[in-house]
Amino acid sequence: MRLGRIPEHLDGSRGEGVLYEVAPGQFLLRVRNVSRYLVRDGAEIVVDPAPNADPASIRLFLMGAGFGALLHQRGFLPLHASAIATEEGAVILAGRSGSGKSTLAAVFERRGYGILADELCAVCLKEAPFVQPGIPGLMVWADALARLNVETAGLRQARQGIQKYRLPSVDGPAREGKQANTIFFLAPGEKMEITELKGRAKVLALAAHTYRRLFSTNQRLSVDDSRKVKAIARQTRMFRAAWPKDSWQVEALADLLQKEFAA
């Protein structure tokens, strides 16, 4: 990673969105009043901060979409997920922003499970799907921290104007990855229940929680990514985990998930 000047557009762009452009071996992210980021060939991230930009905001997008693009270029399948380390292997908690994956990971950490990843979960295919250790700590919303009886004083804020804070890992950064055991896809629901996914439903759920929409030229899975998703789906148990967040049943949800992956 280094600081440097980045052009407004990429030469040879083959796909673009509101904030990004994609070209062969390159990914350009433009965040207004924060920074531009250029990720190249899985080897380099160039950061071009805007004048007087908030350092926390620069770091947030670098560690999110910037690292996600880097992992993608290196052949990993980056998931929008947290992951914990258990004796049975890595348990992945995937979900949209605000689904409760980081809060749930914090509950599991209190139960003695190590944190492997948060927000960005790097999965590679060896003999089996393998979760690599990621950036230590959890990004948790202030209201969830209050319910966990954690004070925000002294915690680093995710970015200005966002009531989200980095909660350090109890045991520091994980040093070893784990073979993937189970993936839970968190979703809102009227009642708490988990449903095992089978066949094509597994593939669709996993594809929906990758960073592919930012990194592909047509917002669809590439042939290589499709192969990875199908291989992971074949070798990993997957569940939809619905829960009514407004009633704060995260401990009960953790109990339900723990019975499943520790069975």
Give your account of this protein's structure.
This protein has helices at 55-73, 101-110, 142-147, 200-208, 212-215, 223-235, 250-261; strands at residues 2-3, 15-16, 20-23, 26-31, 35-40, 44-49, 77-86, 89-94, 114-117, 120-125, 129-131, 138-141, 156-159, 162-167, 178-188, 193-196, 237-243. The protein contains 7 helices and 17 strands. The chain is globular.
Assign an overall shape.
Answer: globular
Radius of gyration: 18 Å
CATH class of the largest domain: Alpha Beta
* Domain unit count: 2
Report on the biggest sheet: 6 strands, mixed
**Strand arrangement across the biggest beta sheet:** 1-6-5-4-3-2
Please report the total strand number as a whole number: 17
Helix content: 25-40%
Quick take:
The chain has seven helices and 17 strands. The chain has 263 residues and is α+β, with helices and mostly antiparallel strands. The protein has two domains: 2-73, no CATH class; 77-261, 3-Layer(aba) Sandwich (Rossmann fold), CATH 3.40.50.
